């Protein structure tokens, strides 16, 4: 009897296959928290914040001058560095002009010049970066030396030299920004294109006898376009800071026109009093660059998450 009771106890203690299957099924239903899922809500939040800030300033650059309650250079108040009021939401500047109107109008210069310069610098840098890989080695080396020479010159120093030599103008500011930031775009595009040029489909296109421009535009560019666009967004932020710094030094956009950097420089005398005339354009530059940075970081992080 003792042996029979021991065998019965052993059978009861050993789980059946049905019980094991039920436990595995219940455990498989439990949600598994992966790092990507934990990071996804945060990435969405930063993306929407960046998109909202950046999109707001793009919209202001397009329709801002038509929304301005006063002309940009109109003297509308006798109060200098006036505070916020119903008539002047962002106060008045050092000459009694409405700051809201000047910011709505000046944002077009800051955003517009930065967008044009970022597009041109990315086009020049990425274009030469892709073509250099497909050119003969001696010509590729020559292009690389030229861009290495340009990238060794600090951007603000190059802009200061050009403006001092030829005078301040909008085309010259765009040219200075392109020459300053196209070399960085070239390096990134060249390294990406060098890796892509060794892949089989590019070699097949060369064997078919396709031209260099076809290979660069059809075979290489589609596989590096996301990285190029991300880099262009970073160039936009750098160019905004460069143009704002030039305007702060008085070598950027010249009167009667004004960009956000010019508005800070004009009203720097009210900084000790905490005047809105100097705080508002500084906050405008900050929100523009922060919004662009958040949008770029969230897009690049989401792309890396999808790859994983």
UniProtKB/TrEMBL annotation:
Region of interest called Disordered, as start-end residue ranges on this chain: 1-33
Family in the record: Belongs to the binding-protein-dependent transport system permease family.
Q: Which residues cross the membrane?
A: 48-68, 80-97, 109-139, 159-182, 236-254, 274-296
Subcellular compartments: Cell membrane
The protein depicted here goes by the name DNA-directed RNA polymerase subunit alpha
Membrane protein topology class: Multi-pass membrane protein
All copies of the ABC transmembrane type-1 domain together span: 107-296
Give the main location: membrane
Entry GO terms, CC: DNA-directed RNA polymerase complex
Which is an annotated Pfam family here? Answer: BPD_transp_1
Question: Keywords, A to Z?
Answer: Cell membrane, DNA-directed RNA polymerase, Membrane, Transcription, Transmembrane, Transmembrane helix, Transport
């Amino acid at each position: 009897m003792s042996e029979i009771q021991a065998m019965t106890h052993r059978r009861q203690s050993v789980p059946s296959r049905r019980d094991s299957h039920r436990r595995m099924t219940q455990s498989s239903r439990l949600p598994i928290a992966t790092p990507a899922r934990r990071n996804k809500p945060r990435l969405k939040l930063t993306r929407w914040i960046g998109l909202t800030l950046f999109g707001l300033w793009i919209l202001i650059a397009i329709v801002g001058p038509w929304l301005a309650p006063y002309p940009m250079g109109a003297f509308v108040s006798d109060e200098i560095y006036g505070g916020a009021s119903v008539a002047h939401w962002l106060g008045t500047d050092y000459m009694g002009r409405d700051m809201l109107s000047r910011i709505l109008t000046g944002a077009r210069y800051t955003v517009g010049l930065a967008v044009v310069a970022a597009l041109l610098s990315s086009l020049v840098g990425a274009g030469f970066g892709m073509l250099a890989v497909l050119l003969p080695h001696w010509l590729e080396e020559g292009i690389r030396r030229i861009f290495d020479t340009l990238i060794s010159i600090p951007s603000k120093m190059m802009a200061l030299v050009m403006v001092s030599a030829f005078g301040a103008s909008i085309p010259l500011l765009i040219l200075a920004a392109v020459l300053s930031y196209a070399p960085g775009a070239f390096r990134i595009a060249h390294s990406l294109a060098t890796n892509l040029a060794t892949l089989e489909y590019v070699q097949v296109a060369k064997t078919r006898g396709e031209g260099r421009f076809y290979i660069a535009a059809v075979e290489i560019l589609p596989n590096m376009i996301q990285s190029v666009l991300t880099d262009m967004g970073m160039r936009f932020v750098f160019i905004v800071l460069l143009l704002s710094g030039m305007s702060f030094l008085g070598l950027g956009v010249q009167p009667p026109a004004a960009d956000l950097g010019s508005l800070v420089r004009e009203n720097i005398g009210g900084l000790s009093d905490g005047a809105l005339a100097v705080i508002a354009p500084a906050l405008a530059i900050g929100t523009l660059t922060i919004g662009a940075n958040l949008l770029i970081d969230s897009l690049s992080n989401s792309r890396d998450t999808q790859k994983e």
